[in-house]
Amino acid sequence: MTRKERYEFVLSYFQEHDPNPETELLYDDPFELLVAVILSAQCTDKRVNMTTPVIFSRFPDIKSLAAAQFDELFPLVKSISYPNSKTRHLIAMAKMVTDRFGGEIPLTVEELVELPGVGRKTANVITSVIDRQPNMAVDTHVFRVAARIGLTRNAKTPLEAERQLTRFIPKDLIHKAHHWIILHGRYVCIARNPKCADCGLRPACRYFQQVVSKKAAI
Q: How far apart are CA 9 and CA 68, in angstroms?
């Protein structure tokens, strides 16, 4: 199977089985999604979703968050990984959005990465989810799954993986493809002992063909 054929198979499979994928983070507007994505770094979406309702109840918009004191916000964030830095980042982010962007969450990667606590992955998530821009957020799941299947080749960094994926995935599907790959990594192509027996991508998966099939043949 050529690389082009592999992409076509994978994308067709996901379009058939999950035509409208969505983020598992719960949010009502760009402000809430940005807060949730910042909190989600090295933390599960499930834990974030358990935490954000209280945060949004106390700080319902960017203006109130910008006026928050560390000691007010930290108790609401402390169950999340790296609570000290994330508390500081959230307050500083809100202040910058208020002061520099008039209280509106910017929707370009270039502007978003200027915000405290926002890297390229977070910016790609925000722009692809809110505005369906053709930006691919590469987290550990996407990086692992894309390499296993053979969608990426010898990518050493998330940026290299992002460039390869956006090169071969049609622009109108990139905002969906991020969710397809990340969810596949969370529930099927998990880090240890991937559930290959339950995977519909086996015909196109280099890992299955090169590792699992050979083991079964021994």
A: 49
Q: What is the pLDDT along the chain (218 residues), one digit of tens a residue?
A: 899 999 999 999 999 999 999 999 999 999 999 999 999 999 999 999 999 999 999 999 999 999 999 999 999 999 999 999 999 999 999 999 999 999 999 999 999 999 999 999 999 999 999 999 999 999 999 999 999 999 999 999 999 999 999 999 999 999 999 999 999 999 999 999 999 999 999 999 999 988 765 565 54
Name the catalytic one among 139, 156, 195, 215. Answer: 139
Is 121 noted as a catalytic residue in this protein?
yes
Options 4, 29, 86, 121, the catalytic residue: 121
Tokens of 82: 């790296």
Within 8 A by CB and 6+ apart from 71, the residues are none
- The class that CATH gives domain 3-21+136-217 is mainly alpha
Q: Does 30-131 carry CATH code 3.50.50.60? A: no
Dist. CA 215–CA 196, nearest whole Å: 13
Tokens of 57: 């109840």
For residues 76 and 14, give the distance between their C-alpha atoms in angstroms, rounded to a whole number.
Answer: 37
Residue 28 bears catalytic tag: no
Name the residue ranges covered by the structural domains of the chain: 3-21+136-217, 30-131
